[in-house]
Write a structure and sequence with these properties.
Blueprint (H helix, E strand, L loop, with lengths): L1 H24 L9 H29 L49 E7 L4 E4 L3 E10 L10 E8 L8 E3 L9 E9 L5 E11 L2 E13 L2
Parallel strand pairs: 2-8
Antiparallel strand pairs: 1-3, 3-6, 4-5, 4-7, 7-8
């Protein structure tokens, strides 16, 4: 649009100069021409001036160097997409707490006993109505000695096979750690079968240890 404006202005300027030149160069006493011929002369002059102006502009425009450049799109550098990394999960061993091992030691009682041996052996066979002795060997495992008159041997439960009393006084003193043998007369029942009984060594109602009897009565 700017080029068209320049061309138009140049043509107008040339036309003005041409008219001015015509007025200045015309002789003052020129004869009056025919109006039609005068109009044709003016139009021919204007056309010639316009052609000269256009030719001059064209040559000037051709002399102006033009530079042509092509825009080349810039390619963005490739972006490195991080690849997912595999995470190896290794379970850790859970250490179990180590607790100290405690061995509980029972506190010895003041009065207690332990069965060392018994007779007859468990399941011993006797003919029906046969006499036998129940024998127990015990040890005083308490903290104190047994005094005479305080320790008893008592029948607790089971078949009564004793031939006399159910309670016997232990008339022997037993020192701490000492041993004692107890014997009770018994008789096998009159009916065949297996029989058991339980006796206990007691002090003032406290059971210090229990003593078993286990036999079998058979026919002769």
């Amino acid at each position: 649009m700017r080029k068209n404006l320049i061309v138009t202005q140049s043509i107008a300027l040339s036309f003005s100069l041409l008219l001015s030149g015509c007025n200045l160069l015309s002789p003052p006493a020129a004869p009056t021409l025919d109006p039609q011929a005068q109009q044709a002369t003016i139009e021919a002059a204007v056309a010639q001036a316009m052609q000269a102006t256009v030719a001059a502009y064209t040559s000037t425009a051709a002399a102006i160097p033009t530079s042509t450049f092509t825009l080349t799109p810039t390619q963005a550098p490739p972006t490195n997409t991080p690849q997912p990394t595999a995470t190896l999960w290794v379970p850790t061993a859970t250490k179990k707490p180590v607790y100290p091992t405690m061995t509980l030691t029972p506190t010895p009682a003041e009065y207690s006993c332990k069965l060392i041996s018994t007779s007859p052996d468990a399941g011993k066979k006797y003919n029906i109505n046969t006499d036998f002795d129940a024998t127990w060997k015990i040890q005083n495992t308490g903290l104190k000695a047994w005094e005479v008159g305080y320790v008893d041997l008592r029948w607790v439960s089971g078949t009564k096979m004793q031939t006399s009393s159910d309670v016997f006084d232990i008339k022997t003193a037993v020192a701490k750690g000492g041993e004692l043998t107890l014997i009770v007369d018994m008789k096998a029942p009159s009916t065949t079968g297996k029989y058991t009984a339980s006796w206990a060594v007691m002090m003032e109602g406290i059971t210090m240890c229990t003593l078993p009897v286990n036999i079998e009565a058979t026919n002769p």
